[in-house]
Design a protein that fits this description.
Elements (H helix, E strand, L loop, with lengths): L3 H7 L4 H20 L6 E8 L7 H24 L3 E2 L10 H13 L7 E8 L1 H12 L8 H7 L8 E4 L18 E4 L9 H13 L9
Parallel strand pairs: 1-3, 2-3, 4-5
The structure holds farnesyl diphosphate.
Farnesyl diphosphate (FPP) binds next to helix 1, helix 2 and helix 3.
Length: 215
């Protein structure tokens, strides 16, 4: 979800306004995906292990925004049968934010529609290290399945979209994206619409996916 800061600056507003607008887009895209039965899982990169390097005030704003979003969204998750499954190492967050994250996760655990994952203090390298540390004590050789199951997310990514014009993965779901189809758009996240998503999905469905095999 890249481009919040630039979106705000282009309008002469503070960067954090872009995050606020970005949170509105998260709501719209999540609701849209919850109504499309072909979409099982939507994972959104909300805060990376590297985002702590940002100015303290921006980090604090993002933490407050996340807490507010989660508290407000609980009813929307329930109305739309969305299960909330965060990924990342949330132990670095305040006790109050950790509690809100756990609460929303527990209260939506019975929902069997879309799974919405927010990547929170998430980095793929950190996820892999935590996974290896979980399984390193076993005597057997580590297998793909063992590592996959120890990751925060053990689902493969089909379609990965990055907004904001950069062409990189920035430490997002690197293991799970081994055969993901990658889409990059110059549109800044606050301008990204359900129409944009629909067009990307249409193009995605035309791709012949071979997973390293032949036609
Ligand atoms: C990247 O844009 C975006 C982030 C680091 C945070 C993403 C957060 C949101 C979309 C809002 C909060 C999320 C939720 C779920 C409530 P950037 O700041 O790097 O933008 P720039 O590249 O234009 O500077």
């Amino acid at each position: 979800m890249d481009g919040n800061g630039r979106w705000a600056e282009l309008q002469g507003k503070k960067r954090v306004k872009g995050h606020e607008e970005g949170a509105e887009v998260v709501k719209k895209i999540t609701t849209y995906c919850s109504k499309n039965p072909d979409i099982e899982r939507l994972t959104l990169y909300a805060f990376s292990t590297e985002n702590w390097k940002r100015p303290r005030l921006e980090v604090e704003f993002l933490m407050k925004l996340l807490e507010k979003y989660l508290k407000n969204e609980l009813t929307v998750y329930l109305e739309n049968n969305v299960r909330f499954e965060p990924i990342g190492d949330i132990r670095a967050f305040s006790k109050s934010l950790q509690k809100t994250i756990k609460d929303v996760k527990e209260k939506t655990a019975h929902c069997d529609g879309l799974v919405q994952s927010l990547a929170l203090n998430y980095g793929a390298q950190d996820e892999m290290i935590r996974a290896i540390n979980k399984i390193k004590k076993c005597d057997e050789d580590i297998t793909e399945t063992m590592l996959s199951n120890a990751l925060d997310c053990n689902h493969n990514v089909d379609l990965l979209i990055r907004t904001g014009g950069d062409h990189r993965l920035s430490n997002f779901l690197l293991w799970q994206s081994a055969y993901a189809e990658l889409f990059f758009t110059d549109t800044l996240w606050p301008d990204f619409t359900t129409n944009d998503l629909e067009k990307i999905i249409k193009n995605f469905t035309k791709i012949e996916r071979r997973f390293g095999g032949l036609k």
